[in-house]
């Protein structure tokens, strides 16, 4: 990797066995023994949570769902039993022990489990990457309506094909129209994160802007390194990072749908939300 961190790999996700707690440990040992984490592939591309190479990072929904519910993503503190909390802790701790590095993971579903994770990991740190809300909503729209999406291949009606994280309010919004579903999904997931920030303390969170990450990645990674080092999770950048990445923004769907989402997001947030609206300052208020 480009930083001295460890993670759940594509191999760990592929080898997952429901009910088994040994797979994260087994796959970590296998990745290290075969040096799969030292792939020559320098791609930064990901496809809905998976990257290129057996030893590369994966969001690992299949591993987290060994303990967390698959259908109801929101989990409050105290939801998991002591046994399950210990299982989650061991899966991460053994991965750190194998690689002797701090553990990192980007699982979108965990954004509504932040306080439950903090209960398991009292020193956990959180990085919130913010993006233009209309771009986020549009991205979900594209995922739900693209031709024969692999996860939704048996669903013919896009309005019923929920995509990605389900906020606490899922049952209340799942029967609404597609525009309302997606916009409220974006809104309520963000509200969940902000509530966790208030409860846990802002010093445990680093806010990163998606546009900045794309246009000046080294600068943003330096901020991550500083944040982790300042909070007792020592890491460093080990390879040259590209100068920039393509910044995906702007309209890519039908105008009527795009404008409908912009209008509804503006209604939810009580101020204009559009393609050129900066989000970072508002979210830090």
Structural class: mainly alpha
Strand-and-helix sequence, N→C? HHHHHEHHHEHHHH
Largest sheet: 2 strands, parallel
Evaluate the radius of gyration.
19 Å
Low-confidence segments:
none
Mean pLDDT: 89
Report the count of strand segments.
2
Give me the side-by-side strand order of the main sheet. 1-2
Amount of helix: 40-55%
Measured distance between first and last alpha carbons: 34 Å
Q: Which strand-content bin applies to the residues?
A: under 5%
Q: Rough shape?
A: globular
How many helical stretches? Answer: 12
Folded structure, characterized:
The protein is mainly alpha-helical. The protein has helices at 10-14, 23-33, 61-64, 82-99, 114-120, 133-145, 170-173, 178-200, 210-215, 217-230, 255-269, 280-283; strands at 126-130, 205-209. Strands 1-2 form a two-stranded parallel ribbon. Helix 8 packs parallel to helix 11. The longest helix is centred in the middle third of the chain and has 23 residues, at 178-200. The model has no long low-confidence stretch (mean pLDDT 89).
Keywords:
single chain, 285 residues, mainly alpha, two-stranded parallel ribbon, globular
Topology, element by element:
Elements: H1 10-14, H2 23-33, H3 61-64, H4 82-99, H5 114-120, E1 126-130, H6 133-145, H7 170-173, H8 178-200, E2 205-209, H9 210-215, H10 217-230, H11 255-269, H12 280-283
Parallel strand pairs: 1-2
Helix pairs in contact: 2-4, 6-8, 6-11, 8-11
Please summarize what this structure is.
The protein contains twelve helices and two strands. With 285 residues, it is mostly helical. It has a two-stranded parallel ribbon.
């Amino acid at each position: 990797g480009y930083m001295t961190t460890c993670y759940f790999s594509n191999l760990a996700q592929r080898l997952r066995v429901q009910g088994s707690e040994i797979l994260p440990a087994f796959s970590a040992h296998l990745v290290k023994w075969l040096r799969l984490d030292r792939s020559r592939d320098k791609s930064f591309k990901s496809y809905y949570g998976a990257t290129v190479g057996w030893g590369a990072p994966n969001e690992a929904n299949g591993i987290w769902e060994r303990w967390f519910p698959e259908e109801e993503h929101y989990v409050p503190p105290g939801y998991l039993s002591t046994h399950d909390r210990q299982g989650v802790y061991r899966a991460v701790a053994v991965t750190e022990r194998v690689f002797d590095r701090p553990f990192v993971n980007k699982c979108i579903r965990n954004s509504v489990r932040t306080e439950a994770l903090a209960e398991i990991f009292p020193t956990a740190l959180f990085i919130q990457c913010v993006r233009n809300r209309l771009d986020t909503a549009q991205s979900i729209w594209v995922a739900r309506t693209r031709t024969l999406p692999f996860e939704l291949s048996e669903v013919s009606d896009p309005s019923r094909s929920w995509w990605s994280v389900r906020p606490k309010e899922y049952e209340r919004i799942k029967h609404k129209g597609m525009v309302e579903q997606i916009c409220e999904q974006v809104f309520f997931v963000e509200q969940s994160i902000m509530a966790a920030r208030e409860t846990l303390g802002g010093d445990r969170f680093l806010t990163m802007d998606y546009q900045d990450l794309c246009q000046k990645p080294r600068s943003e990674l330096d901020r991550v390194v500083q944040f982790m080092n300042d909070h007792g999770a020592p890491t460093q950048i080990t390879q040259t990072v590209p100068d920039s990445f393509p910044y995906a923004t702007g309209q890519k769907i039908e105008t009527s749908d795009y404008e409908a989402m912009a209008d509804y997001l503006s209604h939810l947030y009580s101020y204009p939300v559009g393609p050129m609206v900066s989000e970072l300052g508002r979210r830090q208020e």
